[in-house]
């Protein structure tokens, strides 16, 4: 029994690390473990979190999506521009989601059909989509959005007496659950793992590997679109300079959560905890009044430490 | 003992937590001999080689090099002491030139500057010694596998190797190419170099080897003079009990209708196959030198390579554009390289085995998949722990059975096997061909491509010889002897 527990602890080491950081945070600051602060944590983690869930699909196939930050900004602006041109918020959101998904699918298809590394295709996407974002309004933010739209992200939903969490946080959690179920319970999920584990073997087993690669990028684009909508809803303004470098936060979270950059191994649960871990770190530094310079330094060190730990575990298990 | 250039004394190697790869293994190699190493899969050959080459450190025991005990901490130290290892997947950098590869890590020169003139001169000398007919300035990726093999040997020479370890050099060479490698080996041995040669093929060991050491279960079983030892005795030493080489079985005459009729198939690199037929219940072998088009043909049939032509399957037109098309029509391919093409090594056994048949539904049904996997693996007498185990933990023979299980579970009736016995030990090979026989008896149409004519001879109802992309002759192994077929594969001429 004790051995089993240790094995579980090693398998889900990101949860152990997360809990350790939470304990440290609680002792460092009395304000950490309060309902308000926890609700804040989810609210702040939501955008990166939603994007990181999409990124998990991409990385599981052994690919990478550098364009998500730009797609978040593009979609955040698109939804704002549509509404300020008189579109109904529902219609604007629907169009934006379709646009984001299409952007992702297009990059995935180019990468899969022309056999170009996704790194390059999405790097091009990163640059171009940001350009389009600026072109939309000549770089000017869009404000004066309808009240109802702001409610998408910031409605407080009571889930316990005295504890309410924002709709953004709930959307993030809900998407994690759905994504986890898709990966675990659907044949599509199985195909994602198989394609990442050995693309050639997957192809020769009759799997539509090109379609799968296209699809994971579509998922990533879809999630980035949702991220953009949530961001604009929270800021109540379409901001073309938003979400710069967000792709790196998302990738860091996915890898920190134990998903292999070579594909085929990992999952959404790890990504969820890693997103929250990074958010808790940011939160502690804020509560302690330490600036973002410390934050950045320590975040980098934590990522390296976690990766080394995973390498060590792989080595012990003989996965070299 | 004293004239041994290298002695391995009672070396053990344990991998945490419980795997014992070597248990008190010993080996003595004399200068100027070709010392062969034989053993089934998992006998500890590669572990022993890696210890000699400095890639692993022994848990117990020691190495004595020219009378002095040595401790090798890494491969660089081993090569400084004159031990050079040529891996099966030649560790050359394909994008660099031959001379860059020859002197990678020990280029002549000072302060990090390379003396290119000196390097060119010494590279030419080394290439001359191995009888290479290419210049030092060509890129390695443009060379044939045989010439790459020569480059690897030449590389050992530039390091003044006293001991050259060759791990299954013949696996990727055809017979003519192997001959020229053998000539180089003989020349090196004459100059006092010791060769440690690993191969599964007994005939080859007889041709090149002086002595042979047999490993089984991590222990040394014995060292024999090859000329004085019969095949049967060696095989007994390898597998521990009497078990004959793959034997020709009495096969019933094939009565099935024509399953697959390749009227014409033209593909890349001059592949041009005409009039090839397989009946239900028939096992058809494809033999030929490397590059004769066996693999390309099977991949084309399986929809993985583009082709033009006319093929009938069960009297209906068959032109797969993707592997998925071929799979839907009941084909299954056991590819040449099970690790890179056949399996997802870190995924569980049951997921590998059910990968092609998952398309039947939207949701995964893990317990259903296991239920389908277990009886098939059992019928293939696969040895494994749990179906959730990663397939990488199985031995080569059992991995191959998982690949086969994929297609059996998916209900494939036309099986294409590409070098199915590669890397398997003798027992596992016999097992595999028993299975092939059984599948054919149950009515499957089977095509087996292999460079081991002996195996095809034992297992097939008919053997097609491929030569430079064309099928030049169909032989009946009941009627034609082996040598005639062998002649045809080399010469490309059809004689009945």
From TrEMBL, chain B:
SUPFAM superfamilies xrefs: P-loop containing nucleoside triphosphate hydrolases (SSF52540)
Entry-linked InterPro entries: AAA+_ATPase (IPR003593), ABC_carbohydrate_import_ATPase (IPR050107), ABC_transporter-like_ATP-bd (IPR003439), ABC_transporter-like_CS (IPR017871), P-loop_NTPase (IPR027417)
Coiled coil stretches, renumbered: none
Keyword Repeat included in the entry's annotation: yes
Keyword tRNA-binding in annotation: no
Domain ABC transporter: start-end pairs: 6-242, 254-491
Keywords per UniProt: ATP-binding, Nucleotide-binding, Repeat, Sugar transport, Transport
GO MF annotation: an example: ATP hydrolysis activity
Family according to the record: Belongs to the ABC transporter superfamily.
Protein name (Swiss-Prot/TrEMBL): Sugar ABC transporter ATP-binding protein
Species this chain originates from: Phyllobacterium phragmitis
